[in-house]
Write a structure and sequence with these properties.
about 100 residues, alpha+beta, four-stranded antiparallel β-sheet, about 25% helix, globular
């Protein structure tokens, strides 16, 4: 790693159209959106590298919707939160929307 990194906290909603997906599917949804948006996310080291994402809110139950989900993501280099928000909203499915993004 060693290079400069930035941490961005996003607030997003899990809306009515996707309220019946599980927590693991919810995590996969965000990871796929990051890959589709081609964002410079940092991966963990080791045999099975994972995206550096920390979920700051509790896991939602199946059938539960929320507008107050938060996650902290680590990116390589300096990235504007507004660009992260725009790119993720462009590729995210209906019912999943980034409401705000800011530096951590």
């Amino acid at each position: 790693m060693g290079q400069n990194i930035c941490k961005i906290t996003i607030t997003y909603e899990k809306g009515e159209p996707i309220r019946f997906i599980s927590h693991l599917d919810h995590i996969r949804l965000l990871e796929r959106a990051i890959r589709r948006a081609d964002l410079p996310i940092v991966y963990s080291q080791g045999f099975n590298p994972r995206m550096k994402i920390s979920y700051l809110t509790r896991a939602l139950k199946v059938g539960e919707a929320s507008t107050e989900c938060r996650a902290e993501m680590t990116f390589e280099g300096w990235t504007k939160p507004e660009i992260i928000m725009e790119k993720l909203n462009a590729v995210a499915p209906e019912g999943f929307k980034i409401l705000s993004a800011s530096f951590s």
